[in-house]
Amino acid sequence: MNESQAISALGALAHTQRLRVFRALVVAGPPGLTPSILADELGVARNTLSFHLKELSHAGLASVEQQGRNLIYRADFSRMNGLLGYLTEHCCEGAPCGVADAKICSPH
Length: 108
What we know:
mainly alpha
């Protein structure tokens, strides 16, 4: 993942409803969800949800597939992992770090 792709993905996730939609897709896993199920689960109007799904798709964080009369949306796990890898690539200057090591990694 490059900087431009990371900015696009982070921008797409920088909205409460889109973050909730993306997290719901992550929880659903590979089977994905239809927009109607997502709308019901999240209590979001379907036209609003459509806009958010489009934004996640444009950022590469979600994919859509037509199955019969239904659209199935799925989280793009490789893109999600790419973003996480990009954000943590040089964490702690390459040394292993975790929650217990957070104070070591902080700039203070």
